[in-house]
Design a protein that fits this description.
- Helix content is 75%, strand content 0%.
- The chain is mainly alpha-helical.
- It has a domain at 431-489: Methane Monooxygenase Hydroxylase, Chain G, domain 1.
- It is elongated, with a radius of gyration of 32 Å.
Length: 489
């Protein structure tokens, strides 16, 4: 019943700077325009470039530079007009194609932007700006491999380009290549130790690779960079949950939502941290706030459903699981948990359907296989139970609950040796005294049924010593006395 942690993997992409051209002429008005632009006096710069265009209407640099100023003023239609004119005058300049491509991109026209970047690369194969910006479009089109290929070209000639390394690292994360991503982020932080995106990316790579302690260290280092980043706090919260520091995780997410009260990820991970700390009622409130902020995210309904289930509010849990499945009808985790609620309601056929579908969708979903096998066993479908629980046991060979159910299945088949083997493995992998008691009782029953009363007595005595439950102790004492009396007869 593990809640889904939220870990942001949003790409941090910074487009390369506009490529300003220098005029061939030394005209004073052009120089004044350039100086005004450098000082941030954009309106004044436009006026000077207007004058320069009147004085030298065939100078492509004037139109390119005025286009850059218009772009900085977010007047992208005017910028594109100037870049068009610059290219009519000088169609062989790759920088102007890149500039126009960036304007098209800002205008929401990635296809024209892509064409401009590709044209720039036809003119200059290794143009870093064109490669970086085209990689952004490849990524948005879902072609991660082509985006990586463009960034590889950038890094061939500039292997320590931090922006390209961070971008490529994020792409490696998106394709599930944690080690490659970590290598890029590690190189990036060596070059720029104050780069928040690189440290956070390194944390994400370590988190996704299961190295939670290192992930927390990386997120902590990222938080020393200028400006306290709420998303890094959210991500560190996830790492702290995995390392068992639930109170630290709660503090991180409380700070994150204070810095960014509109962060659904912050409230979602706060809910996960609260639930991990056993504060389920508070978790319900946090997940509710996440739902208010992001009503289309199914995992928030799923997580709140888990909290309701733990609180014993099965009706609300079922409602949340149903809502999550409306959005993500093939989520095996939600299906498995809904199946458990349906089983508790006595809707066994529907529950088995959920367990089966969850196991079909994710054939390594141990929880779904365990529940499906146990359901088959309770319905007397012993062969099906053995088949499914056997698969679950192979995937998770030390899960005592699976081993116990597997042993019970063999017991139903009167295969006592196999049952005892499974019970012994369960006992070897269990630390809870009450669960040990249960396993020893089943072991005693298997021994008793196989005719080994002496060892059955030993097993029941071991169970008696493992439990503090008075009613269980009373039943075991009675059982032991009956067996002893039976032996005397």
């Amino acid at each position: 019943m593990k809640a889904l942690l939220v870990l942001s993997l949003a790409l941090v992409v910074t487009l390369c700077t506009w490529a300003t051209l220098r005029a061939d002429s030394a005209e004073e008005v052009f120089d004044q325009a350039v100086q005004a632009e450098k000082l941030g006096n954009l309106d004044e710069a436009v006026q000077f470039y207007d004058m320069a265009a009147q004085l030298d209407p065939v100078n492509s640099a004037v139109y390119n530079n005025r286009g850059i100023v218009f772009a900085r003023q977010r007047k992208y239609d005017k910028a594109i007009e100037d870049f068009d004119q610059a290219l009519r005058l000088n169609p062989e300049n790759p920088g102007t194609y890149v500039n126009r491509g960036m304007a098209h991109q800002e205008m929401g026209d990635p296809d024209r932007a892509f064409a401009d970047y590709s044209k720039a690369l036809d003119l200059e194969a290794g143009h870093a700006q064109a490669l970086c910006n085209r990689a952004v479009i490849w990524e948005k089109r879902g072609s991660i491999s082509r985006a990586v290929a463009d960034l590889n070209e950038v890094l061939k000639t500039d292997e320590l380009n931090v922006k390209a390394l961070v971008f490529r690292g994020r792409l490696h994360l998106a394709e599930g290549s944690w080690d490659k991503a970590l290598k890029d982020f590690t190189t990036a932080v060596r070059q720029d130790p104050a780069n928040l995106d690189a440290w956070r990316g390194s944390g994400d790579a370590n988190f996704l690779g299961g190295r939670f302690d290192k992930a927390v260290q990386d997120y902590t280092r990222a938080l020393t960079c200028p400006n306290r980043d709420p998303q890094t706090l959210v991500n560190r919260c996830g790492g702290l949950i995995q390392t068992g520091d639930f109170e630290g995780a709660i503090r991180d997410c409380e700070e994150a939502v204070e810095l960014d009260p509109a962060s659904p990820d912050g409230f979602s991970n706060l809910g996960n941290a609260l639930m991990s700390a056993g504060r389920d009622q508070e978790a319900v409130g946090a997940f509710g706030r996440a739902i208010d902020l992001a009503p289309a995210k199914s995992e928030n309904y799923y997580n709140r459903g888990i909290a309701f289930k733990r609180l014993g509010d099965s009706d609300r849990a079922l409602a949340d699981f149903n809502r999550a499945l409306e959005m993500s009808p093939r989520d095996p985790h939600v299906l498995n948990n809904r199946g458990m609620v349906l089983w508790a309601f006595g809707r066994k056929e529907a529950a088995v359907e959920d367990f089966q579908l969850a196991a079909d969708l994710d054939q390594r979903n141990v929880a779904a296989l365990k529940n499906l096998g146990s359901a088959y066993l309770s319905q007397g479908l012993v062969d099906d139970a053995i088949r499914v629980l056997g698969k679950a046991q192979r995937l998770s060979p030390k899960d005592s609950d699976i081993l116990l159910a597997f042993g019970d299945s063999w017991m139903e088949k009167k295969k006592f040796d196999k049952a005892l083997t499974s019970y012994k493995k369960a006992l070897d992998n269990e630390t809870s005294p009450e669960k040990k008691c249960r396993i020893l009782v089943r072991t005693g029953l298997a021994l008793e049924r196989s005719g080994n009363v002496q060892k059955a007595l030993q097993s029941y005595s071991g169970a008696l010593g493992a439990t503090a439950d008075s009613s269980v102790r009373e039943g075991l004492t009675r059982k032991i006395e009956e067996l002893k009396a039976q032996r005397k007869r």
